[in-house]
Automatic annotation (TrEMBL):
Pathway assignment: Carbohydrate biosynthesis; Calvin cycle
Organism of this sequence: Rhinopithecimicrobium faecis
Binding-site residues, substrate: 118-121, 210, 243, 273
Superkingdom: Bacteria
Gene that produces this protein: fbp
InterPro entries: FBPase_C_dom (IPR044015), FBPase_class-1 (IPR000146), FBPase_N (IPR033391), FBPtase (IPR028343), Fructose_bisphosphatase_AS (IPR020548)
The name this protein goes by in its record: Fructose-1,6-bisphosphatase class 1
Amino acid sequence: MNTFLTLGQFIVENQKDFPYAKGELSRLLADIGIAAKIVHKKVNKAGLVAIFGDAGSINIQGEGQKKLDVFADEQFIQALTSGGECCVVASEEHEEAIYIPAKNASQAKYIVCIDPLDGSSNIDVNVSVGTIFSIYRRQVQEGVARLADILQTGDQQVAAGYIIYGSSTMLVYTTGNGVNGFTLDPSIGEFCLSHPKMQIPTTGTIYSINEGNYSKFPEAVKKYIKYCQEVDEATNRPYAARYIGSMVADVHRNLIQGGIFLYPSTLSYPQGKLRLLYECNPLAWIMEQAGGRATDGKQRILSLKPSSLHARTPIFLGSKDMVAQFEKIAQQLEDGE
Ligand SMILES: O=P(O)(O)OC[C@H]1O[C@](O)(COP(=O)(O)O)[C@@H](O)[C@@H]1O
Ligand SMILES: [Mg+2]
Ligand SMILES: [Mg+2]
C-alpha cells in the first residue's frame, strides 16, 4: 500500500500555491515529471542501451554533447511541446529559444528554461547527474512570446526545481511556498512526497569547489578556501572538501547536510561557468526558499538581470551562515583589513 502522497495528489492539495494558474502550472509540472521518468529509465540503463559516450555534436556552449544530453533535451522539449502549457523553451542545448506554436486558440502562458542534463562529464562514469528547470509566466499575454519574456530576473520565477538521477531519482521543486522533495517509486511509476518542507541547515562543514582552478581564483575565494582548511574546533574546522562535478548533486547534498557550493570566475570562465537562466536562478530560488542564500559575490543571484539566454555568472550558494562568512572575508579584503 503506497502511504506517500504522489506528486499529482500533492499538487491538487496545494492548488493554493498557484492562485493564478487554474491548473496550467500543475499540468506543466506534471509534464516535466513525465519527461523525468523517461530520462530516469535511460540513465538507469545507460551502460546497457549505448546511451554512453559522445553524440559527436557540439552545442551552443561549444561543448561536446553526450548522447544523454541530446536524449534528455529531446524528451523535455517533446513533453513541454505536447503538454500545451508552455509557449517557449530556452534550453542549454540550443542557441536560440524554441517557440512553441499555440496548440489551440489560447496562447500558452509559461516559459521554461532548462538544463536537460546537468553534470554531463559524469554520465560515462556512473556518477549522479540531473535536470534543472525554471518556469516564468509571460509578462504580456497577447501576441507571440518574445525574448523579453524569457530574460526575466530570478525573482520573477513562478516555479523552479531539479531532478537528480542518483541512488534514487528525486524531483525537488518550489513555487514560492517552501521546497518539497519527491522520490520516484519505480514500482508504481510515481514521484512520492519523501522530503516535505526541506530546509538547509543554517551552517555546515562542507565546502564544494573545483580547487584545480585555485591559482586563478579571485583573492577572496583563495582566502575563504584557506579559512575552510584552518584548524578551529569552535567552528568545526577544517571543513570537508566535497566536489562531485554535477552542480545538482553538489547542491542537493548541501541542501540536506548543509554546506556551501562555490563556482567563481576562473581563467577559462571569467564570467563564471554556470548559466544564470537554467542553472543558477532555479537553484538559487530553491536555496532561498529552503532558508539558504545565493549570491554572485556582490548581490543576490535572483536579482540579476539576464543579458542573454546563456549568460553566465559566478555563484556562491548554500547554508546562510557559510555564505555570510564568505561575504565577510570578501568584504574584509575589499576594505583592506
Ligand atoms: O568541471 P568543472 O569546471 O568543475 O565544472 C563542473 C560544473 O559543470 C557542470 O557540469 C555544467 O553543467 P552541464 O553539465 O549541464 O554543462 C555543472 O554540473 C558542474 O557543477
Ligand atoms: Mg549544467
Ligand atoms: Mg547540461
